[in-house]
Amino acid sequence: MNNRNVSDDFLKLQERYRINLKDKFKKIEECVQKQDLTTLADYFHKLKGSGQTYGFKPISDIAALVHEHYKSQSPDFFQWAQVGLSLLQKIHPTLNTPPSISLNQYPEFQQLESSMKSLMKKEGES
User: Which CATH number fits the domain that encloses residue 62?
Assistant: First the structure.
């Protein structure tokens, strides 16, 4: 197998992953509505890893911040999960192969990131 075939195969995998994200978003939305904390955290944890694996760093970055809220036992976890989901849904149509998006253009990402920094600072003071 040559590099071109591997590259073409990976591009196909990336596209399939991108398309399947909508189903994952629906499942996350259901977990938010049911307030299923453990399953919701698991979805964000998986997105954190899979986004990076498939070359969609913005997906991974958003999911990592939301998952950190879970790990930090943030009382606002469900709120931030909703913000994260909303942001994922917003950027989804802009994802392409290869991805080229800057999350800093989205106020929701800045809020999510800022809240995590604030939460980490509080933990450090404890």
Answer: 1.20.120
